[in-house]
Amino acid sequence: MIFYLFLFLFPLNLAFAEQLKEGEEWTLTKFPNQWDDVCEVTPDSKKILFTGEMETSKIAHKILEKEKPESFYKRGFLFLSDVRKMPDLITRFVAIPKMRSYSYPICLIKEGEIANDIPREKGKLSLVYLRNGKIEKILFSNDPTKVVEFYNSP
Predict the structure, then answer these.
(1) Torsions phi, psi of 133, nearest 5?
(2) Residue 65 and residue 85: Cα distance in Å, rounded?
(3) What is the dihedral angle through the alpha carbons of 7, 9, 14, 15, rounded to the nearest 10 degrees?
(4) pLDDT of 86 strictly over 80
(5) How far from 85 is each of 6, 23, 90, 110, 116, CA to CA, in Å?
(6) CA neighbor of 112 nearest in space, from 144, 132, 85
(7) What is the bridge-based pairing of β-strands 47-51 and 125-131?
(8) Pairwise CA distance, residues 62 & 31, whole Å
(9) How many angstroms separate the CA atoms of 148 and 123, rounded?
(10) C-alpha distance across the termini of the chain, in Å
(11) Distance (Å, rounded) from C-alpha 54 to C-alpha 135?
């Protein structure tokens, strides 16, 4: 009986995992992008724009499609998208081929529980400032002006 109770409660523990907080180390470092290259969070990374929802990804794409991919690297900027909720066939045959048409890299979380650690608010993009691998500040916004300010900030 205790075994079955454990099996029931263990997934609940994962669902309520602690999200990363300001002052903590950003521990998630490598992700594939839409071209199957590796996106890497390094000590030089300064900003991570995170989305886990289709509506917020549309906000991000409208802003980022105007930018040159080289400016991502110069700014220490990464765009991270959680696509785990998407059905696998849709991800493979629709979403990723469309993402490949974008000129900028999209770091993808395709599986696993690691995305549960990323700070988020429903209906908003997560704007994460990093310094030397640590989270300096976390903001949440669905306002395109705030996202542009985040992207352009030093």
Answers:
(1) 85, 0
(2) 24
(3) 130
(4) yes
(5) 25, 29, 10, 9, 12
(6) 85
(7) antiparallel
(8) 22
(9) 17
(10) 56
(11) 25
Q: Which regions of 76-146 does DSSP assign to beta strands (E)?
A: 77-82, 107-109, 125-131, 134-141
103-133 b/e (C-beta count within 10 Å ≥ 16 → b): ebbbbbbbeeeebbebbbeeebbbbbbbeee
* pLDDT tens per residue across span 6-34: 444 444 444 556 899 999 999 988 999 99
- Give the position of tokens 């999200």: 19
- 3 state SS of 94: helix
Q: What domains are defined for the chain?
A: 2-152 (3.40.30.10)
Determine the residue type at 137. Answer: K
pTM: 0.86
Mean pLDDT over the full length of the chain: 89
